Amino acid sequence: MPDFEAPPLTVLQPGEGREGSLGSIGVVFKLFGEQTNGLVSVVEHPFPVGALVPPHLHTLEDEYSIVTEGAIGFRSGDREVVLEAGGYITKPRGELHTMWNAGTTPARMVEIISPAGFEHFFWGLADQLTDGPPDPDELAQLAEKHGLVFQDAPWVPDLVERYGLTPLPPR
Questions:
Q1: What is the pLDDT of residues 76-86, one digit of tens each?
Q2: What is the mean pLDDT of residues 9-30?
Q3: What is the DSSP string of 19-63?
Q4: pLDDT of residue 7 exceeding 90
Q5: Band of pLDDT at residue 167, cut at 50, 70 and 90
Q6: Residue 17 has what DSSP assignment?
Q7: Cβ count near 91 (within 10 Å)
Q8: How many CB atoms lie within 10 A of CB 158?
Q9: Which residues pair with 89 in a beta bridge?
Q10: Is the Cβ–Cβ distance between 91 and 113 less than 8 Å?
Q11: Which of 26, 91, 158, 159 could form a disulfide with 46 if both were Cys (CB 3.0 to 4.6 A apart)?
């Protein structure tokens, strides 16, 4: 039998978990890698109307998203889709992607991150944003530490126009 230690039982009731802002979207922390033996982490992301996540790619983990409210658009590589509540999507590491609220009401999704660890980027960014806009150098260090690469994408202006989005100011 393999040498495996089961993670401890973790229970969060609806509405529990630290909430924070990531700039364009929110974050609610549900499961950290420390609670899953590093296998996965889980966060929720509320998307206000007009929200657009800056295009980025991950070098260390894959993300699996489940839309639970509203409509969220996803672009990964050259593929684009809008998913409503109940829709699932994978966002593989190494592929430039973005997400946005594609509707006229607030939206929400659950993000499963594998392997765990990237939830600590969200935690660090939420901490930086409690005192106003993040220091660009501190943000760059935090992103590098967690294998996150921000990139400009020529298709962003089209998304902004089609969905009436509010992009974050340039970094």
A1: 999 999 999 99
A2: 94
A3: EEE-SSSEEEEEE-GGGTTTS-EEEEEEE-TTBBPPPEEESS-EE
A4: no
A5: confident
A6: S
A7: 23
A8: 12
A9: 65
A10: no
A11: 26
Provide DSSP, the chain: -----PPPP----TT-S-EEE-SSSEEEEEE-GGGTTTS-EEEEEEE-TTBBPPPEEESS-EEEEEEEESEEEEEETTEEEEEETT-EEEE-TTS-EEEEE-SSS-EEEEEEEESS-THHHHHHHHHHHTTSSPPHHHHHHHHHHTTEEE---TTHHHHHHHHT-BPPPP-
Amino acid residing at 147: G
Instruction: Please check whether residue 135 is in contact with residue 171, taking contact to mean a CB–CB distance below 8 angstroms.
Output: no
Residue 66 is given by DSSP the state: E
Q: What is the DSSP letter of 148?
A: E
Q: Indicate the DSSP class of residue 133.
A: S
Supply angle C-alpha 91, 100, 104, rounded to 5: 140
CA triple 159-162-167, angle to 5 deg = 45
Residue 64: name the closest of 100, 40, 34, 28 by CA: 40
Q: Which two tokens stand for residue 80?
A: 């684009």
